[in-house]
Amino acid sequence: MQAAAASSLDARRLGGVFSVLERVDRARDVVEFAEHTLEALGSVLGYRDTTFFAGPTYDGLFLDPSPLLEGRQRTLIREYRQRWDRHDVFARPRAAAQLHRVSAVSVDADDPATPADRAYRDWLGGHGIESLTAVHVAPGGAQALFGIFGPRGTVDPIDLAVLRLLGRQLDAIARHLPGRAAAEPPAVALPPRLAQTAELVSGGLTNAVIARTMGVTEDTVKKYVSKLLARTGTRNRTELALVLQRGR
């Protein structure tokens, strides 16, 4: 399948794939991998509005508290967090199954939508985003999506073939990368409350859900998470979840 996809692409587009991979191959960990890929999606392939969401599970990645964002996605993330993360088109089982099978899936404004998808797509359309594309990778045993957004037709069928070829290669690179080069699981046993927080964070739960589960305030959960970040040497919840998953 990979050879068939490559044979349908011209030399220029294949050159773009190799150029992206050359930049990404220098990454020492998942965070650098994501940063290099987003930069290359813009500078090499010309996509300006991109994201990287990661989590220990596929469902959990949509709750990533610290996604990497390029372009106007930065202005939409708060509203996405408050209302739309669980309504994301790519969170649907059918889209998830397709992404695991072919690496990249694109949805355009003209594509049929279920009622459950329509509200989310209308919200994005109100911000001038009518094309949604996701590329699936599994870094270090976790789950992640690169998102590409833009006006209608941002990703045409040939572009999608490029992204599917690229996605398979990115996945092969990402699977062998650590969450962060200097990060290691805690060397000593955690106190019970921190251990419980670590387990819930690694499950991709938000602070609000963790607070309800543990019977504490969100401020207390934030303090626990800060202590876990300090103990593991990680910079954000995404790195922390990846490190905790490796330490199980």
UniProtKB/TrEMBL annotation:
<dbReference type="InterPro" id="IPR000792">
    <property type="entry name" value="Tscrpt_reg_LuxR_C"/>
</dbReference>
<protein>
    <recommendedName>
        <fullName>HTH luxR-type domain-containing protein</fullName>
    </recommendedName>
</protein>
<dbReference type="Pfam" id="PF00196">
    <property type="entry name" value="GerE"/>
</dbReference>
<dbReference type="InterPro" id="IPR036388">
    <property type="entry name" value="WH-like_DNA-bd_sf"/>
</dbReference>
<dbReference type="GO" id="GO:0003677">
    <property type="term" value="F:DNA binding"/>
</dbReference>
<dbReference type="InterPro" id="IPR016032">
    <property type="entry name" value="Sig_transdc_resp-reg_C-effctor"/>
</dbReference>
<feature type="domain" description="HTH luxR-type">
    <location>
        <begin position="183"/>
        <end position="248"/>
    </location>
</feature>
<dbReference type="GO" id="GO:0006355">
    <property type="term" value="P:regulation of DNA-templated transcription"/>
</dbReference>
